[in-house]
Amino acid sequence: MREIVNAILYQERTGVQWEYLPHDLPPHSAVYYYFAAWRDDGLTQTIHDLLRCRVREKTGRAEDPSAVAMDSQTVHSAAGIPAATTGLDVGKKSRGRKRGIATDTLGLLIAVVVTAASVHDNAIGIELLDRVVIDNPAVRTAWVDAGFKKQVADHGRALGVAVQTVQREPGAKGFTPIPRRWVVEQTFGTLMRHRRLVRDYEKTTASSQAHVYWAEIDRLTRRLTATTTRWRDQSTAEPALPTLAA
């Protein structure tokens, strides 16, 4: 089982197709079998949630968060993805799928929703709130951007969650970290370092959500073990170019 998990994490980081997993890992058919089985019976999310609780405890926090930040991200879909689960994000003029995530104040993943890119953020926000409240009933506050409209705030109020819209500072130019919301944007950036997530390659949105959880599992295990990812082999790195004499 450890080698099965290693193979899944290898795919998350490298983006390799199932058939091209290295031969020193288990057969790709066995790896995919367990990936799909754990996806369908909820074990993937259970593993993730248990690890997240341990990370929060390690930082001196309670297991369950009391506040979340929510945002969405549009990514291109690969060729062959069913048209029924893809669409056009009119605002970003991008075709593919949309990922909505909720994170705690540490930037740890709380919930994920994957839809066609044509789905409005309101629908994603409502679904995220439902999932957050089911698994984390202690949440009382959610910070969002202006893409989440009044419907999300009304739905949150019915669930006992105060939805607050956090705007950019007036006159801010270029990249500026936005209070409360910067953690969810940082999480998106970190997850995208896993090449399997740079494009949506999955035929089902359930698989897309599972891959987000596995990428987050990779982050959580490294935080628990205080290790870092070497995205480039330092021993084979190109030497620095010599500087020219004045």
TrEMBL record:
Residue span, Transposase IS4-like domain: 64-209
Pfam families: DDE_Tnp_1 (PF01609), DUF4096 (PF13340)
InterPro entries assigned: IS402-like_dom, Transposase_11
This protein's name: IS5-like element ISSco3 family transposase
Span of domain Insertion element IS402-like: 1-48
Organism: Actinocorallia libanotica
